[in-house]
Amino acid sequence: xxxxxxxxxxxxxxxxxxxxxxxxxxxxxxxxxxxxxxxxxxxxxxxxxxxxxxxxxxxxxxxxxxxxxxxxxxxxxxxxxxxxxxxxxxxxxxxxxxxxxxxxxxxxxxxxxxxxxxxxxxxxxxxxxxxxxxxxxxxxxxxxxxxxxxxxxxxxxxxxxxxxxxxxxxxxxxxxxxxxxxxxxxxxxxxxxxxxxxxxxxxxxxxxxxxxxxxxxxxxxxxxxxxxxxxxxxxxxxxxxxxxxxxxxxxxxxxxxxxxxxxxxxxxxxxxxxxxxxxxxxxxxxxxxxxxxxxxxxxxxxxxxxxxxxxxxxxxxxxxxxxxxxxxxxxxxxxxxxxxxxxxxxxxxxxxxxxxxxxxxxxxxxxxxxxxxxxxxxxxxxxxxxxxxxxxxxxxxxxxxxxxxxxxxxxxxxxxxxxxxxxxxxxxxxxxxxxxxxxxxxxxxxxxxxxxxxxxxxxxxxxxxxxxxxxxxxxxxxxxxxxxx
Length: 485
Fold this sequence. Notes:
By secondary structure, the protein is an alpha/beta fold. It folds into three domains: 45-273, Aspartate Aminotransferase, domain 2; 278-386, Aspartate Aminotransferase, domain 1 (Alpha-Beta Complex), CATH 3.90.1150; 405-484, Alpha-Beta Complex (Ornithine Decarboxylase, Chain A, domain 4). It has helices spanning 10-20, 39-42, 65-77, 88-100, 115-124, 147-156, 177-186, 223-226, 245-255, 262-297, 333-343, 366-381, 386-397, 413-418, 456-467; strands at 24-26, 81-85, 106-110, 127-131, 135-136, 141-142, 163-166, 173-174, 191-194, 218-222, 234-238, 304-305, 316-317, 321-325, 346-348, 350-351, 355-359, 421-425, 439-440, 472-473, 480-484. The chain has a seven-stranded mixed sheet with strand order 2-11-10-9-7-3-4, with helices on both faces. A four-stranded antiparallel sheet has the order 12-14-17-16. Strands 1-15 form a two-stranded parallel ribbon. The longest helix has 36 residues, at 262-297.
């Protein structure tokens, strides 16, 4: 019989190696390589991997332990009803869109929505009406959607079936959910909130409020992003009478696997219990450590920490999400991320043109922030090539490209999906109709939706991200993209 070292196991071997490297982890999942979960709850994971037998209940027809766990979650998160998702927030967003829209119906959507919204539009056949987030030129990022922009969209499209926004966004920026919810409900429409990055918000008064607090009709949260849960674990919360629960349940059963993971469900339950019983204290500890860290990192020089003073009116930031602008170091966020990983044993969650983004959770302790401070101090002392500084100065010329311009749609996402397609080099696609989803990943916000015209600005934007070292999903070999034939 072979020894473990003799087995050819590329995934297992790499992940074991990564876990042993003592990397300072500032990425999801929120348990941070099990550090946020008591050992007795994280050992023997495979013993939790069972199926629907007597006593284990059934996710799609819960009557026993799963029903009880979902009811406990609803009370903990302040929702009327809560359903466990084992296929991530993606299936929850898809199910929500399919439950409020039929083919050809309008739905008002934040342009900064995750790419899972695109698949929800294709599956439902709905037509998006976009509202655009505010742009923050100090950090080169998008802020939130305003209640006024929602009001304008609803007044111009009173036949829209619903409104869908993302809050918080990848940078932890939270729109004014109270006024947005009041505006949407004043039109008698349901509000869907992609709160994938905000599952922790319900558990501390020191954080921005969850959308559940203001009765958003559907709230989808990725537990694995900010709670001590495993990847693909998410919650779908329902509030109020505007959503057809039977439709939601039917769509979830259709979109989710018929063999749901009991490991994922178990850790959704564990995450809820840990946050419900210990969340206030552990989040306060985390925020105290972040405040100390923010004060120290500002003394290094070269870094700018995103906070409320840089944001617009009626917009707040989740302080557990660290966003550090590195442009004054003369490098891109992509270069900072790569250097931190290769030379300084630190892995951030994501990077963009100017910033690095770090996810902090209750799994993080003081030593994590001390190590991060040491790594950032060393990064600031590295004499980067002057070409990097020139590249960043050139990037400033393209700053407004980061602000999403109105996409000109000639086909609905479903129509573009159903059309015949061909693969063409990006440079030759000026004026063509995009057939796929073109998305920098992370954060997963589409530059181009299916059915939109590819213009010169978008081509320049995509090429610039790639030149800076970013990844753009939907762009294939030889910088080719799918277009309608």
